[in-house]
Amino acid sequence: MLISELAELTGVSARALRHYEDRGLLVPARDGSGYRDYAESDVTRVAQIKAMISAGLGTSTIQRYLDCVRTGDHGIYLEMCPDLRAELDALATRLDAQQAELRETRRRLCGLVSAT
């Protein structure tokens, strides 16, 4: 299928699909004219990439662990390995720190508002 077809099926822009290709996340075949030719399995691959991005993972992390992604009866999940677990734990720690910082900023903002 062409990039426009894959974009329509997955809800991902052609630009994003080209970015995934640039990052090594998708590797489409090329036809005789040089057009990208995506397989049906790329629909699942794009869904896996989208799931990982929406969970806060960057494309470099996704590239390292894309082979750990599985799609089963209950959706997309990661098959854990120690390195992946460490990366996910580090991401969760960073998110916790950001949340704490936002709470503190909100507390200071409320203090300014109530002081008037």
Brief write-up:
With 116 residues, the chain is mainly alpha-helical.
What's the layout of helices and strands?
Blueprint: H1 3-10, H2 14-22, E1 29-30, E2 36-37, H3 41-54, H4 59-65, E3 69-72, E4 75-78, H5 82-114
Antiparallel strand pairs: 1-2, 3-4
Explain this structure.
The structure is a single chain. 13% of the residues are buried. The protein has 116 residues and is mainly alpha-helical. The chain has a domain at 80-116. The protein has helices at residues 3-10, 14-22, 41-54, 59-65, 82-114, and strands at 29-30, 36-37, 69-72, 75-78. A hairpin with a 5-residue loop joins strand 1 and strand 2 (36-37). The protein is built from five helices and four strands; from the N terminus they run ααββααββα. Helix content is 61%, strand content 10%. Strands 1-2 form a two-stranded antiparallel ribbon.
